[in-house]
Amino acid sequence: MVGGDDVAKEYAAGFIAGLATVVTGHPFDTVKIKGLYKGASSSFIGTAFESSLMFGMYSQTKKIVQGEEAQGSRPQLQVIIPSAFCGGAMISFILCPTELVKCRMQVQGKKDTMYARYSGPLDCAHKTLQNEGIKGIFRGGLATLLRESIGNAVFFSIYEFSRYWMHMQLNSMSFPHSKHSKLLTDAGIGILTGGLAGIAFWSAVLPLDVAKTVIQTAPDTHSSRNPFRTLNLIYRRVGFSGCYAGFGPTLARAFPANAAAIVAWEFTAKVLGLKRA
User: Fold this and answer.
1) Which residue among 107, 114, 121, 192 has its CA within the 20 to 30 Å range from the CA of 82?
2) Would you give the distance in Å from CA 271 to the centre of its chain?
3) Of the candidates 131, 159, 172, 163, which has an alpha carbon nearest to the alpha carbon of residue 255?
4) First-to-final CA distance of the chain
5) How many CA atoms lie within 13 A of 246 on its CB side?
6) How do residues 33-83 score in pLDDT, each as one tens digit?
7) Under 8 Å CB-to-CB from 177, ≥6 apart: which residues?
8) How far is CA 78 from the centre of its chain?
């Protein structure tokens, strides 16, 4: 069994990773408006809470699945995938309503949209619940669930295997390791593995994110909620590129944001005395 203190520390490390994600990634989201950290306060809280759940659940589930005796061994897909899948599925229930509000706030006032009457996020959430009920606030839930569960399974698989391989290569080299050089090495590996994992995540599931956004902002609230049907319509209308709309900016943000998250997560875990599985 995992101790209660370790559980709290795992979630705390995830929270710090979320803060690092916002600090690094938020300017990429707001580069077209004044102030690089405009509107960052809500992102800090939401992303940090989401990251705390994701990293904490992943770490705890992985330890339960593989057992304490297997810590430090070669990464195993049969452990990583279900652990990441469960964590991603859980946070999708939080992300779906928050992203629905965010998307509807972003499109309000545009031509051919019904979302043009919200004074703020809380007003948007209230009116959505009032007009569409619980089903309305969780519109796009299947697309979010698939994006987070599949995406995080890809993310942690790439992260764990690339991290293991890089450490194995460095350990095979015979040169002295000082405490300072080890910190720099760990940070460098964290940057590379986190960045690559972030790119892998969005390369795998960006079409599901595109479908989710279309579903959540559709003028007709009775339109299909099936992400695959939505993607099929997008493909038939604008081709394959439509399914990967915004791919360039998404990858530009993915590398630094996820690199910062992994470095912050690993460093915080080390400071708190947690053993990496």
Assistant:
1) 192
2) 23
3) 159
4) 14
5) 14
6) 354 344 334 445 667 788 889 999 999 899 888 876 556 678 999 999 999
7) 185
8) 21
